[in-house]
Amino acid sequence: MESIAYYLEMVLPPTDEKVWNQVENLRSMVQQASWILEDVVHAVKTTPPNPSSLRLDHFVARVTSEIQLREEQHLHVHLTAPGVTIACDSSQVEYLITTLLDFFRHVVRVSEPISVSTGSSGEFASITIDTCSAQGDVTSLSRLLDPQPYGSVRTLTEANGGSLRIEVNPPHGLKVSLLFPAQPAAPQSLNP
């Protein structure tokens, strides 16, 4: 289908807006089909979580730094939960973050930033990814996260003891939060 869209771009006059909208719709369907196939392959390969203690701010800083080095999209990273730890499988949480950022990169204009933040509220720690500049209908975009093509995001989040929250703020706002139980803070020793 991608080849068909490419061919149509080459042979059709650029003046017919209806045709170009259909070409963009075709490209969007190709992308969504690709997402579904990738998600199914990942779901089949997934193993049960092997939890370890992750310091959330350090972990998210490392993952987002690596992503920014290899991608064009600018990320605004706000680490507001210093020292908070979660007990999760690090490779699975890294997959969750990279998959969601990949999703956001496809639905946000390249020149617009994507925000990644951490937070903590009592028993839970969060990783939140959001934008105010999603292209297209954000309600339809949010449905892509549940249950398909990114059903593994919810499945892996829940397998690691967490939950997924999706917020839509039309016309262009989209926010996805991964919530995990926070581990109790280690007692601080008092040195005389």
Layout of strands and helices, then pairs:
Elements: H1 2-11, H2 17-45, E1 52-55, H3 56-70, E2 75-79, E3 85-88, H4 90-107, E4 114-121, E5 124-131, H5 138-143, H6 151-159, E6 163-169, E7 173-181
Parallel strand pairs: 2-4
Antiparallel strand pairs: 1-3, 4-5, 5-7, 6-7
Provide a descriptive summary of the structure in words.
With 192 residues, this protein is an alpha+beta fold. It has 2 domains: 1-45; 49-181, Histidine kinase-like ATPase, C-terminal domain (Heat Shock Protein 90, 2-Layer Sandwich). 45% of the residues lie in helices and 23% in strands. The chain contains 6 helices and 7 strands. It has helices at 2-11, 17-45, 56-70, 90-107, 138-143, 151-159; strands spanning 52-55, 75-79, 85-88, 114-121, 124-131, 163-169, 173-181. Strand 4 (114-121) and strand 5 form a beta hairpin.
Query: How many structural domains does the protein architecture include?
Result: 2
Specify the structural class: alpha+beta
CATH superfamily of the largest domain: Histidine kinase-like ATPase, C-terminal domain
> What is the CATH topology of the largest domain?
Heat Shock Protein 90
Mean pLDDT figure: 79
What is the chain-wise order of helices and strands? HHEHEEHEEHHEE
Amino-to-carboxy terminus distance: 71 Å
Major β-sheet annotation? 5 strands, mixed
The level-1 CATH class of the largest domain: Alpha Beta
Strand content: 15-25%
| Largest beta sheet: strand ordering | 2-4-5-7-6
The value of Rg in angstroms is 19 Å
List segments where confidence is low: pLDDT < 50 over at least 5 consecutive residues.
none
